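We append the chain.
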Amino acid sequence: MRSSLHLLLLSLAAGINGQHIFKLSTFKSELKSTLTNVEDGAFLFISSSDDSNYLRNIQIETAGTQFNALDISNRFFSGTSGRKIGLKVLRGLSITTTNNNTISSKLFGQLYVTTAAQAQDPNFQVYDVVARETITPTDNLSKTYVLFNVHNYSVDSSYPYYSCIISNLKQDPNSILVMNTGIPGQRLRNITKFFVNPLDEIAFGHFFTNIEPLSIPLPVFYITGTLGGPTFTMESGSIPATTINTTAVSTSGLIMVNDDEIAQNYTVNFNADPAYDGVCGFMYVSELLKGVEVQSGLYGLKGGFTGFNLDDGLSYAAGEMEGYGRMVMVNATAPNMGFYSYQYYNLRGALLPTPSATPTNPPTNPVTSKIPTITTEKAIIPTTTKSAHFETFSILFVVPVFFQRFF
């Protein structure tokens, strides 16, 4: 009775909308895990870089036939592609393991069961992100890509356990691209959407023709795209640099920290054109730990700044400032903050009028205390190094004009 109750709760926990996703560490040696709410014709995938001997000890049974997890995890369309071939599920699904529970608890692989409709959709594709691979659409139909980041063994904690790099991302200017945490139709976090193009969160509808390489430290996420979906290159790993120099005047990028990472300070140096007007802004989502504060500030042309608080209870925010951003700093002063994602952007606008006269001998270090500031919550002082007392997480915008609006 105890085992049956456990299995029922196990299935209900992740079997929403006919889909299931579990870490392999979930399955224990004393239990036969029978998954409920599994649709006939669904696909089962296993994504894992765990020891092959341990994977062989995990048995999956469907349609009266047994398969081991290693064989399923190695089902790829070709030896050069990470695209996976699903195992069709018929007449139920159960999992057993002969690994002892100590070994099972250390496994990092994941088991994923789709719905039957997803399995029948050729535009719904599942990938392991391993070797460098470019995805190029061949038609004009909408696409969904579910991407599993295989576990990377980080000895010195210098990079996250699960991570990939998405680069060379291009899309039709009339299309819509959204990146989400987890799997389609099932929320693994309170937050799902973390990167969008165009960005219309604050009613501006900005489309980015240039997107910086994105470092995404998530076990699994998915990309949806209309009008054929995006073209992009993916590879396992993370971008180690904490100073980002953008590659175009108008651009968008991403800073993301997952729960298992040590938070670091980030600086984004925008490739701005001072002859033009422009706007800069962000979309921010988080699941921060209780008691961690988020602050953001804006620098004016002569050094004034303004700040506002985003406390740990705020899971979403979006804002825009009139004027080019010169720099944005994301400073973590807590080593383990939880999850946050920060999509930043900078866009060139109209050509600025030529000033009638240029002041002579402009001060190189203006006194910031005499510059007027506008404060929505409270002003903050920028720091570029971690504080000895871990208390706050700050976001600082540097732009060549004063703060105009915040939504």
